[in-house]
Amino acid sequence: MFYHPRTESEIVSLKKYLQQRASEGSEDDIDRWIRMVATNRLTGHSSGFFSVYTLPPNQATSPEDQKRINEKRGQKPEYRNVRDIILKKTRSLRKDLTPEQISALGAASRRAQFTCRDAGKVQEIPSCSVRLTVTSPPFLDVVEYSKDNWLRGWFNGIDAKLIGSKITMSRTAEQWTGTMTKVFHELFRVTADGGYVAFEVGEVRKATLKLEDCVVPAGLAAGFHCLAIMVNEQRFTKTSNIWGVGNNALGTNTNRIVIFRKGRG
Ligand SMILES: C[S@@+](CC[C@H](N)C(=O)[O-])C[C@H]1O[C@@H](n2cnc3c(N)ncnc32)[C@H](O)[C@@H]1O
């Protein structure tokens, strides 16, 4: 329901190749780049994706819902060349980069550290070592990340159910504030004196709950000073139109960035 059979067979071959490289320990930077681009091209709403018209890649719909979308739009997946799409996207991602920037990014990546810990306990990060954290937590239970990413999980051999059990989903503002308070204590531990945290949230429950009202007390309780709340009015995109949401009607209409500092600065 997502792919032409020939496209699907190309995707499965690529998945197997990448899996084999990873399991042999021979996966290199080029393999990782291809994995990243392919993961991002799996499903989408234009001919730049492997799939027939569907929701954007971070919101893979279920096979049943895709059958319904196909019926409603009278569409059938046509052949998409996986290799050509990966090359085209690669060129567009690199087009504005100078050779100096590419080598600077390469150097930065050698010092970069990736972890997949719970944000409430990231033991790899030493205390007082971070000058700036830019982050955005799940907004209560608005998005079910493991469900929306099932196809990306499949492609990368990741068990979405297992990941789902580790993702924070809070039904109530109280539960959410409790979890975020733990996260703020960890942020306080890792932040250097004079360092900053930019914590992005939205309004949820049809704008009746503004999450910064929970974030500010949680940050203060951990010891941070709150410097500002930036409010960004959101104009809706293609995705929200798919959901049938008009501008400033339902969903997240504004997002807010709460800025904290550790110490007086
Ligand atoms: C609003 S999104 C932010 C996405 C982020 N800006 C990005 O570009 O990847 C919230 C993210 O928090 C992750 N998440 C959920 N629970 C978490 C936890 N306990 N610790 C760390 N991250 C978590 C979700 O998987 C999701 O990717």
Write up what this structure looks like:
The relative contact order is 0.11. The longest helix is centred in the N-terminal third of the chain and has 20 residues. With 265 residues, the protein is an alpha+beta fold. It folds into two domains: 107 residues, no CATH class; 109 residues, Vaccinia Virus protein VP39 (Rossmann fold, 3-Layer(aba) Sandwich), CATH 3.40.50. It contains eleven helices and five strands, in the order αααααβααααββαβαβ. Strands 1, 2, 3, 4 and 5 form a five-stranded mixed sheet that branches. 45% of the residues lie in helices and 15% in strands. Bound molecules: S-adenosylmethionine (SAM). S-adenosylmethionine binds next to loops.
Compute the number of structural domains: 2
Named CATH topology of the largest domain: Rossmann fold
Distance between the termini: 56 Å
CATH structural architecture of the largest domain = 3-Layer(aba) Sandwich
- Look at the helices and sheets and give the structural class: alpha+beta
Tell me briefly what this model is.
With 265 residues, the protein is an alpha+beta fold. The chain has helices at 5-24, 29-41, 63-73, 82-94, 99-111, 145-148, 150-155, 160-164, 173-190, 212-222, 238-242; strands at residues 130-135, 191-204, 209-210, 225-233, 254-261.
Write the layout of secondary structure elements.
Blueprint: H1 5-24, H2 29-41, H3 63-73, H4 82-94, H5 99-111, E1 130-135, H6 145-148, H7 150-155, H8 160-164, H9 173-190, E2 191-204, E3 209-210, H10 212-222, E4 225-233, H11 238-242, E5 254-261
Parallel strand pairs: 1-2
Antiparallel strand pairs: 2-3, 2-5, 4-5
Helix pairs in contact: 2-4, 9-10
The structure holds S-adenosylmethionine (SAM).
S-adenosylmethionine binds next to loops.
